[in-house]
Amino acid sequence: MTNKNIPARTTPHDRCDHIVQVAAQHFIRDGYDGASMTAIAADARVTRPLVYHYFAGKSALFEAVLARESEALLEATRPDPSRSAEENLHSALANYLDYFSPRSGRALNLRSDVAGAAPFIASAIRSNHDIEVDRIIALLGLEDSSLARSVISAWLEFVTALAQETAGDSSTSKDAIIDICMRVLYAALEPLKAVEALKTDY
Questions:
Q1: E-strand spans in the chain?
Q2: Any long-range contacts for 68-72 (C-beta under 8 Å, 24+ apart)?
Q3: Does the predicted TM-score (pTM) go above 0.85?
Q4: Residue 192: count of CB within 10 angstroms of its CB
Q5: How far apart (Å, rounded) are the C-alpha atoms in residues 25 and 65?
Q6: What region holds the HTH tetR-type domain (predicted)?
Q7: Minimal CA–CA distance to 42: which of 30, 50, 34?
């Protein structure tokens, strides 16, 4: 937990960013329902009204935390043009699994207070997946169809669920999980390619 004062001369963006950083630690420690706007303001060394000046309420602040973390995840899984599609997918999966590790300290993978946090987390993950779908279609050179998007989106939901389920399982290696995810993706794409091939025959 940070107790450092914000420098006197800071921009509104810096103050807002600092509040979000502090809030993330509170949400991770206390969960969505347990986090307190008063405690967040005190730890950020700002007034409670200032927090509400930037964020209409706790839900808005939590969404800002999730948006920040989602951007970080997208950056960590960004494809490298110098690498092959398989290398990029493997690297992205490795970073994705690291992100959902209990050691990552991310609010995006909170699971303890589902009633409060789940709707916001689900929305953030869906937004993240929309971008990842675009990336995977481009990486694999697939036809950008509604079916392809549905298949890849469903696969991403599988990857997310598997990452969450195995996050604290030290008996299963990350490489084994990545291998399963890759196999499931390729298995799902085979019938998709067959369907797309049939469409070209008519």
A1: none
A2: 68/20, 68/24, 69/24, 69/106, 69/107, 69/108, 69/124, 70/108, 70/124, 70/125, 70/127, 70/128
A3: no
A4: 17
A5: 10
A6: 13-73
A7: 50
